[in-house]
Design goal:
The chain has 139 residues and is mainly α. It is built from four helices and four strands; from the N terminus they run ββαααββα. It has two domains: 33 residues; 104 residues, no CATH class. The termini are far apart.
């Protein structure tokens, strides 16, 4: 069947057949097949960002600035040293065949997204628990 475009008063919609969608999923899976760290990191961060945007959380805008400050200072310094930026034998080593092999200094690009995922998920949980506790005190 392939792709079908439908014109509607609300806009133009594109419908994909099951085969077409399966082909796209197979291509994406083929890309990430041996890159589990990359896949889990990107999929988890993407899912979390979708959840937070659907919930319209107020802290997200402040988070991006905080993330940039933390990343520009501590993360680059510590992770750069651990991945061999200043050491002959780094304590943390990544197999290039299991990552995208894109690095900033000596840090795999996935680590930046993983760092964002860890920080954002912790802040989200903290804010959720804090609002639940406030609601319980008000009741």
């Amino acid at each position: 069947m392939g792709v079908k475009t439908i014109k509607h008063p609300g806009g133009i919609y594109t419908l994909y057949s099951k085969e077409n969608i399966n082909t796209k999923i197979d291509r994406a899976w083929g890309f990430f097949y041996n890159k589990i760290y990359t896949a889990v990191t990107f999929i988890s961060l993407g899912a979390l960002l979708v959840i937070l945007s659907a919930q319209k959380k107020e802290f997200i805008n402040t988070f991006y600035l905080t993330y940039l400050v933390i990343t520009a200072s501590f993360f680059l310094l510590v992770n750069g040293i651990l991945t061999g930026g200043t050491l002959e034998n780094p304590p943390v080593w990544y197999n290039n065949s299991e990552t995208l092999n894109i690095r900033i200094w000596t840090i795999p690009i996935e680590d930046f997204f993983y760092s964002m995922l860890l920080l954002l998920s912790n802040i989200w949980l903290f804010e959720t628990f804090k609002s639940n506790a406030a609601e319980q005190q008000n009741n």
